[in-house]
Amino acid sequence: MSDTTFDYIVIGGGTAGALMCNRLSADKRKRVLLIEAGRRDDYHWIHIPVGYLYCIGNPRTDWLYSTEPDPGLNGRTLRYPRGKTLGGSSSINGMIYMRGQSRDYDQWAQLTGDDAWKWDNVLPAFKQHEDHYLGADEMHGAGGEWRVEKQRLRWDILDAFAQAAQEAGIPHSTDFNRGSNEGVGYFQVNQKNGWRWNTAKAFLRPTCYGRPNFEMWTGAQVTKLIVETQPDGTQRCTGAQVWDGQEMVTAHATDEVLLCGGSIGSPQMLQLSGIGPADLLRERGIDVVADLPGVGANLQDHLQIRAVFKIDGAPTLNVLASSMMGKAKIGLEYLMKRSGPMSMAPSQLGAFTRSSPDHEWPNLEYHVQPLSLDAFGDPLHAFPAFTASVCNLNPTSRGSVRIKSARFEDAPAIAPNYLSTDEDRKVAADSLRVTRRIAAQPALSKYKPIEWKPGPQYESDDDLARLAGDIATTIFHPVGTTKMGADGDPMAVLDSRLRVRDGRGGLIAGLRVVDAGAMPTITSGNTNSPTLMMAEKAAGWVLGR
User: Fold this and answer.
1) Range list of β-strands (E), 260-377
2) Residue 109 has pLDDT above 80, yes or no
3) CATH number for position 346
4) In angstroms, what CA-CA distances link 255 with 9, 73, 506, 545?
5) Phi then psi for 390, rounded to 5 degrees?
6) What pLDDT shows up at residue 302?
7) Which residues of 137-161 are buried (b: 16+ CB within 10 A; e: fewer)?
8) Is residue 10 included in any domain, yes or no?
9) Treating both helix axes as pointing N-terminal to C-terminal, what angle do 119-128 and 528-542 enclose, rounded to 10 degrees?
10) Which of 87, 208, 354, 485 meets the CB 3.0–4.6 Å disulfide criterion with 91?
11) Which pTM value belongs to this model?
């Protein structure tokens, strides 16, 4: 930290931050500083795909957030993992490569008034950093940093579920990433030769590490942004105050500060810096720099309802990992072939369909697993089973992220407000009925599936919605807490180019938020790769392209 003045400061070395550093430091004339609160991604469980089990809930790699008691979950709180290491949540997530649906981005263009977000205009950004295992075509890129591969396993029970889904009217799909993800098939994953491929590997090393104009501070937490009033009365972000564990250091940016702290970290940082709802800031004893009520509002997430079915006659991980001999075989297969259960993403088979014929597009996503447990981190059940987790892709419930104090060390209050609308409760009940319809198809009958959770005795809308509250959990897709929007939208934190508004009709110069918090609405699928696409777009705008 001997030099503290840079052209660009990137706060957060996660999904978006890693790509931003790569693109900005490519200009040798510009000096780039990356500030990451976590440590380097040199923990072995980050890189072994099944290691997410040991990274979630681990202070070495996770911020260890929890939600507030949620009325929609019948008063329950949830663990809310967010990556705290280089690579961010791409170091602990499910590794699923998923863009969503083309309509998601056309909706963004409509909400922001900017055609740059239309599907046809974001597809090149997806392809720019992609390295797809099948090579380049009109929908996929090759030779980029972000590796996309087939999974290195298959399970009889998952094949049977896929066949049952087709018998229930869901078409087969070999690729969920061509604009419409309707169908059933195995997910593609961000892995390389059986190892997790996180954004630190993809974008930081060795590329950035070898550039003399790139500097990285790890184990360094930003405590607040520095915003100065200019002679003409406008505001400009000129740097950040950083705690390195021993002293407070001020880092200065001559061009821009790029806040890439994620959907939880970025609104927290803005609020600590006096940018957010004025009433909240005053309650916490923070001077108001910009009154932006949308900071921390508009939280959206995918809530998965995990239905468990006991089966007979097919191996599942519950059985294979139940003995020391079984675990040894699993470990040996991974050691020798980089395949098998240790190469597994948390979910292997996916399906996209409608909760009812009333929906014009697929509004449900399934994550199907050849295992069952009460919650991640808990032991596997002692009986053979599979789990069919289903989520509402387009929830209408909205939550919030709000600081509890002016101390940067204190985690914010995270209130997802799940199942708080009639529409979301209806979709939850209908989605369980769709799950039951798939499980009742002939392709699964030879395995004699028995609904163990939530239980077939519950049938009414009210019962099923209440049970969803009892058993549902997050898929870790929080977005929207610093949303971009059109001029005149009072809840828009950012303009369509991700620049922070000043609450008076202008912008805070030199400050952008580049992460999933900028999404105005959640994408119809997993959110990691859409966040990378947004960073690709933002990097081009920062560089004047």
Assistant:
1) 275-276, 290-291, 303-310, 349-353, 364-369
2) yes
3) 3.30.410.40
4) 9, 45, 18, 16
5) -125, 140
6) 98
7) eeebbeebbbbbbebbbebebbebb
8) no
9) 90
10) 87
11) 0.96
pLDDT in tens, 422-456: 999 999 999 999 999 999 999 999 999 999 988 88
- Give the pair of three-digit tokens for residue 191: 């892995």
Q: Provide the pLDDT for residue 377.
A: 67
Question: Active site residue: 129, 140, 367, 477, which one?
Answer: 477
pLDDT at position 2: 62
Cβ neighbours for 37, distance < 8 A, ≥ 6 positions apart: 12, 84, 219, 220, 221, 222
- Please state the φ and ψ torsions of residue 238, each to the nearest 5 degrees: -110, 0
For 500-513, the pLDDT digits (tens) are 999 999 999 999 99
Using the predicted structure, report yes or no on whether residue 49 has a pLDDT greater than 70.
yes
- The set of residues, in sequence order, having a beta carbon less than 8 Å from that of 275 and lying 6+ positions away, is 225, 227, 289, 290, 292, 295, 500, 508
378: pLDDT strictly greater than 80: no
Measured CA angle at 156 (ends 154, 162), to 5 deg: 85
Compute φ and ψ for 214, nearest 5 degrees: -115, 130
pLDDT in tens, 251-306: 999 999 999 999 999 999 999 999 999 999 999 999 999 999 999 999 999 999 99
Strand segments, DSSP code E, in 244-339 are 248-259, 275-276, 290-291, 303-310
Average pLDDT, the chain: 95
Residue 491: inside a domain, yes or no? no
What's the structural domain count of the chain?
1
Q: Is residue 367 part of a domain?
A: yes
Asked if residue 158 belongs to a domain, the reply is yes
What does the pLDDT read at residue 515? 98
Per DSSP, the chain holds a count of helices (H) and strands (E) of: 15, 25
477 is catalytic: yes
